[in-house]
From TrEMBL:
Molecular functions per Gene Ontology: alkylmercury lyase activity
Protein's name according to its UniProt entry: Alkylmercury lyase
Lineage: Bacteria, Bacillati, Actinomycetota, Actinomycetes, Micromonosporales
First and last residue of the signal peptide: none
């Protein structure tokens, strides 16, 4: 049986509302994390526009899908940004922040059009990689490339982030891929990663 246009629109509306609510929750928590503060769950739900029960459910869904991390009743990670130390460091507006993966460093600063310095290490040889970002654009480091693994619908923090590295040169990316069994994904230079990041973080980069 073919569904009518009215039926399709009716069924799409709840999904659109849930998506917008998840975006508001993400922006709210993300903004606090940018200040280096892990907000209490109660604060996030109380200050996010929408029915309290639905807001809490949206946060739970973000955690379930690996877009958020809650510890001790605080949001300590959201959309790649975290207050927990990692190998990926972002210095911006006087705050030292961390991200789940190297791609997050580039993508977040690009979406925010921020001035920042990012630090990580080559996914193959562990050589330190430091890149200055000006108004969201990486400066120099033409040899550095990044790897964006394919997303299969699992938890982002588990299936994507552990493999989204930067590499000091493309030959090291090739060697790493061979060691990993040539996993599926895409290669991008820093400017390409920044452009992709502007799309991936466009919703949380907007004002609340």
């Amino acid at each position: 049986m073919r569904l009518s246009i009215k039926t399709l629109i009716h069924e799409a509306k709840p999904a659109a509302r849930r998506r917008r609510l998840a975006e508001r929750v993400s922006r709210n928590a993300f903004a606090r994390l940018l200040d280096g503060t892990p907000p209490p769950v109660g604060e996030v739900t109380a200050t996010t526009r929408g029915p309290a029960g639905q807001v809490a459910g949206a946060l739970d869904k973000l955690v379930e899908r690996g877009y958020a991390v809650v510890e001790d009743d605080r949001v300590v990670g959201m959309r790649g940004l975290t207050v927990r130390p990692t190998r990926n460091t972002l210095t911006m507006n006087g705050h030292e922040l961390h991200t789940w993966c190297a791609y997050d460093l580039v993508g977040i600063t690009a979406a925010l059009a921020a001035d920042a310095t990012i630090n990580t290490s080559c996914g193959h040889c562990d050589k330190p990689i430091e890149v200055d970002i000006r108004k969201g654009e990486p400066i120099g480091h033409e040899a550095v490339v990044g790897w964006l693994p394919c997303r299969t619908g699992g938890r982002v923090i588990d299936e994507f982030c552990p493999f989204a590295h930067l590499f000091c040169e493309e030959q090291h990316l090739t060697a790493w891929r061979e060691g990993m069994g040539d996993i599926d994904g895409e290669v991008g230079d820093l400017r390409q990663l920044a452009e992709q990041g502007r799309r991936d973080w466009a919703d949380v980069a907007r004002k609340r």
